[in-house]
NUF2 protein (Pycnonotus jocosus), 469 residues
Amino acid sequence: METMTFPRYSPDDIISYLRSHILEGAEARNLVKGDVFGSPRLDILHLIYLRILQKVCGIRLEHAYMMPLNVDIMYPQIYEGFLPVCNLYIHMERLLPMCRISDFQIADVLNPKTKRTVRFLSGILNFVNFREFRREVYLELQLSYKSAMEKSQHLEAVNREAALKLEKLNTVPVEHEAEIKQLTESIRELEQLLRQDYRRKQTALQEVTSQKKTDIAERTQKLNECKVTMATLEEEQEQLKSKIVESPEERKTCNELMKETIKKLKISKQEVTEKYERYRDAVEVLPSCQAELQLYQKKMELQGENVERLASVSSEARNLEDQVESAQVELKKANTDEMSLKRAVTAKHEKLSTAEIQLQKMREDIEKHKCTVLEHFNEVQEKRGAVYDKVMAIRKEIKQKKDKIEQLKDDAEEKATKAKEIHLILKAVLDKCHESLLKAVKTSAASRAEIIDEIREGLLSIQSSASSS
């Protein structure tokens, strides 16, 4: 449980957060660091937990003192004192798994410890901050969804009104059906006349186009001849130019311009090569760093083995010292074998001195090896820092480009909204045009009907005059 995903807050930060966000009034003013940490007061800690449950889960104070109805208890008065603690433990046990804490126990309510309370409160504060942040995002989404729904409802109402208008325009009343039939017949007759005129005009145009095509073919031939002559003249001009000698001043100016352009190209090429070498060095350094880290790991393993050897040598030295002490005791007991025992002791002292010399050499070698390892490690860290700075610079560039892309997207959305508004305006203008066209059609139909009635009256008068004659 030591490797958690939420940050560990200090006790001062926790107390300030509790005063400003969770507790209110006198509770926040009277809260002290010693009331929660060190030798905590259970009533204040229980009150903090209850306020957190009220804020996060919506649990009221009455719920902490309520007995469950599905349990039959003979004497409920006995459980009145333990009920708040038990209910608080039950609710906290439900809340804390959401905060990535799974080892909450009832001892943390009855006999809390500072480290565990710090971890629990830091996890709860992290969850509360995350909940508030996601709540703001959800409210923004809800507002945008409401505005979108209102817009869609408004557009649906407008579409319905337009559909009703179209239906009204498309439906023909019963009173005007006969007039519309007559108008349709007259329109068909006019269409036939127009088609005949169109065919006549089309045949005339085809004859004219055939004549023009012949004229165009003749002109194209003339153009090709002119192009051939131009090509020959250009070749002759080039030959003449090659014969003409250029002036030295023009050559000098041209050479100077060429030299300046060559210098600029060389400078740009050097800059590009330097950038390429930097990126290549950055890419080549990574595998070398990894190989060096692997070597350092192997060296650390060897160092561990050397430490184990040192421990074994020190154990042998202790064994030798024990043997020397036993030899001294035997010297006191046996005076006859003093010389032989002294020789053995001297030999063992020599062994001890050699072992101590070896130990000193091993220690010096280990210290040297540590210094070299630390130097290599510092070099690797410096290289890693340089690579990290380059990576951060690249990430900053990527962020800037992303911001530019977002700005472009916003501009495109604004243009799309403007285009939609223009579309709506054009649609309204088209509706007005359609209405004016319908009015013009109706007026033309009425004038045609009047003209037809006059013609009929004239025909009837002619027929009556003919019959009378």
User: Anything to note?
Assistant: The chain has ten helices and no strands. The two ends are 125 Å apart (CA to CA).
